[in-house]
Specification:
heterodimer; A: 129 residues; 3-stranded antiparallel β-sheet; elongated; B: 11 helices; 7 strands
């Protein structure tokens, strides 16, 4: 996913407000960085096509709102970045690996905690001698 | 009919492909038998073993191609002792033959794989840029990302950056956070993300299962090396182990535990139990198996060269 500078600004704007139409967004950005209503409309359209904004028609204009909140968007982006260079079929193997992680139950945690305690004990004995 | 240098290059590609088939098979079998021995080696040593194993088919293929194309006359002199170890007409290549089909197939696969990886890499760079722009650069040179998922990782291959989430930052005390950041700085300094990517590309010629096993083993050694490296600054290894366990416990049952770790280097994954044991128990000291490698490499080279030449003759014989 590639996001242009204006797209990022517009997305950030929608994380601050609930909904807005192209004119409202234009009014906000006209003060900050100039540009035309057309530029804003095409930016909103691109963000909609990328699935980052959603829209509903109100009389003749669309009202836009963020498809995901900031935290959700970042969480999904992290997942997306991490999923690169892995293939669908690998999922089963990675699932096996992660399910091992999921099986990381209390017993295992206790075992490891015990290992750490034993290490600490040995270290303090070694320090005292 | 193609002649001269272009024909020699395509002949080399064909020989390389045939030789690599056998070496991939032998190395996969070797690793299958020896995979459990990872615990006997220090992480750095095992990394060297893994690099040697994934590089070997490429090296063996190249040596077989050079031997059969540039030393054809010398090999031909050995005909009485080792019959069949030569390549007919190295400076001629007929595209309308089985050689042509094989060479075209290899070229198509390589072009497809390079194109696909290049596109994935480009997309990954773009996404990492977006991630960077969504974060706030802190005084510790890491990007803080506003999400509840407790994660710290290095993203980006050519200009790697440390990313840490607000979810993790909130859950850790300053000492634990320092440990996590030191660990990630190790990945950054060692360009581990790029190494992982290169390793993944090189190992992609192996069967999928073997390739994944290689990558999992490499990921573990990279994490173990980063854990070990920070012990020069955090003398008390138990603190590192406790942080590791804490981050792991936080990750379980959150979305973070379902994220594959191939494309990023991150804290709190990669068989935590083995990492903690490796950290706290005496470091294994088995040396790099120089003797085995010295013995394996020439034998494998010879076998693969012979296999390429013999496969060539066998197919010619069947088709004639």
């Amino acid at each position: 996913m590639k996001l242009g500078e204006l797209e990022k600004l517009v997305l950030n704007y929608f994380w601050e407000v609930d909904t807005a139409d192209a004119k409202e967004v234009y009014a906000e950005f006209k003060k900050q960085r100039g540009g035309s209503l057309n530029t804003i409309q095409s930016t909103l359209d691109r963000l909609f096509k990328k699935g980052l904004l959603q829209r509903e028609k109100e009389s003749y204009a669309y009202r836009y709102y963020a498809a995901k909140n900031r935290k959700q968007f970042i969480g999904e982006l992290i997942k997306n970045v991490a999923k690169d260079f892995t293939h669908e079929n690998e999922d089963s193997l990675f699932t096996a690996f992660t399910s091992l992680s999921d099986d990381f139950n209390e017993d295992q945690i206790k075992q490891l905690e015990q290992l750490i305690q034993d290490y600490k004990k040995k270290q303090s004995e070694a320090d005292s001698t | 009919m193609m002649t001269g240098i272009p024909a020699m290059i395509i002949n080399m590609i064909t020989i390389m492909a045939l030789a690599m088939v056998l070496s991939v098979f032998v190395i996969s079998a070797y690793h299958r038998i020896n995979a459990e021995k990872q615990i006997n080696y220090a992480a750095k040593t095992y990394q060297k073993i893994l690099w040697t194993l994934v590089l070997m088919p490429w090296l063996v293929g190249l040596i077989a191609a050079i031997s059969l194309v540039f030393f054809d006359a010398e090999l031909y002199a050995w005909q009485n002792i080792i019959p069949g170890i030569h390549w007919h007409h190295v400076d001629e290549f007929n595209m309308m033959s089985w050689h042509g089909v094989l060479a075209s197939l290899v070229v198509c696969i390589v072009v497809y794989a390079l194109g696909k990886s290049g596109l994935e890499l480009f997309n990954n760079i773009q996404k990492t840029k977006v991630l960077k722009s969504m974060g706030h650069l802190g005084s510790d040179n890491s990007y803080l990302l506003d999400t509840d998922s407790p994660m710290a990782f290095v993203g980006g291959y050519f200009k790697p950056q440390i990313f840490i989430t607000t979810g993790l930052k909130k859950a850790l005390n300053p000492d634990e956070l320092a440990i996590v950041l030191l660990h990630e700085h190790e990945h950054l300094q060692n360009k581990d993300a790029l190494k992982k990517l290169l390793f993944r590309w090189l190992s992609s010629i192996f069967p999928r299962n073997t390739s994944i096993k290689f990558q999992t083993a490499m990921n573990l050694s990279i994490e173990q090396c980063a854990d070990q490296a920070i012990t020069s600054q955090i003398r008390d290894k138990s603190k590192i182990a406790e942080t590791l366990l804490k981050v792991k416990s936080l990750s379980v049952d959150t979305e973070a535990s379902h994220i594959p770790q191939n494309a990023v280097c991150h804290y709190g994954f990669d068989e935590v139990e083995r990492r903690i044991r490796y950290l706290l128990l005496p470091e294994p000291d088995k040396a790099f198996p120089v003797l085995s490698m010295v013995m394996i490499v020439p034998v494998l080279n010879f076998s693969c060269t012979y296999f390429a030449a013999s496969a060539h003759h066998l197919i010619e014989h069947i088709l004639s």
